[in-house]
Amino acid sequence: LASTWNFSSRENITVTGTQATLKAKDASNMDWMILVSASKYIIFDSLRVDGNFINQTTGAGRGISVSDSLDIQVLNSHVFNFNGASSQSFAFFCWRSPNCVVRGSLFYNNGAADIRMGTDLADGTRDFLLDDTDTAKSFSDNCVITNNRFGIFPFSEFSTATDWDRKNASQGAVQLVSTRGCVVSNNVMYSP
Question: pTM of the predicted model, to two decimals?
Answer without folding.
Answer: 0.83
